[in-house]
Specification:
Strand order of the largest sheet: 2-26-25-24
Number of helices: 2
Length: about 375
Amino acid sequence: MNCPSLRLTTTSILLLGLSLSAIAFDDTPSKAPFRIASRIFQPGDDNLGLEKAPGQDVILYRATDDGYKFCHHPNLVVFRDKLFCMWSNGIVGEDLPGQRILISTSSDGLTWTEPTMLTDHQRGKGICVAAGFHVFEETLVAYCTATGGTNFHQDTALLARTSCDGQSWSEPHKVTGGFFLAGPRRLPRGRLLLSGDRVGSQRTADRMLLLYSDQPNGLGGWREARIDLRNPKDFGYTEPCHFLRKDETVVMAFRNYSGHLFASVSSDSGESWTTPVETGFPDSTARFSTGQLPDGTTYLINNPGPTQFDRSRLTIALSENGTTFDRALLLRGESTKKRYEGQHKIDGWQYPHAVCWNGHFYVAYSINKEDIGVTRIALTDLITQQ
């Protein structure tokens, strides 16, 4: 993530709604790669006891009676000094035939273009899922997961299209098999990590699919990382997302059924990973988003519960060392309810993805799985600069 250099102060911690004297630790497993300080989330209080992050909220797409009524899986990227957002757009329910990918752009993060169609797999008869972007030199790569009829069908695969201007696109070609919701991310020394879920018979013994490549264009050279699970049945969708510690250790978090995120660590740039363990960080079973500010501060955006599939509150937690999250803010928590029934649709603010750009922090999310919104927060409102 490209953000201006920031430095945390005691004042900034107070701005984030937590006094240093309040920090204590939950009973987190001793070998967990990260933990959350106690009393950060207070389930019995409105908005989990968090201060609301100051920001501006905009709607990129709103479902209507005469239009497509499903939206989900947003992804952001900066390319040619514009902000791009893609998302899955279905007729009424999730991951059904006719689901396509829409894309919108903005020059200021507040005013967005009318969405255009990036792809409609198999001429509108297939199912494609938005899977993020990658920028290499002057080329923008856009990914989608094309399913084989169901998300974990053995033919489900990641496809890519490329563009030099963000308007005209190449024909799609297959990158690798698997189910993915986000594009590859670059490590400090240039290696790319691509994280998703296994499909077909591979899911019998494993769940997550972690790949790495030293080919910088994000289109090939993918090799499978080594990772072992104690109990694959703890996981359905894993939807992995990673962050870096300041010593370049990579920490990968995973969605699961426990009510808390699991996590694994790699010390060899993603080639091998420790066995995932429960972290104690509350999660209601949904996609989350992680990353770093330039000074190494880690953020984790998720729906922290307290019950499964409760996506009524979207929060951001922060950590100076990538080990202890001791500050948090509420991003969205207003009451919201879906207007149209459809397969797998539920209420709430969900499936976030974030980038930093031009002094602001942007978070995209789906609303009730039928609208797409973006919140823009000035970095000076998150952390006091010196």
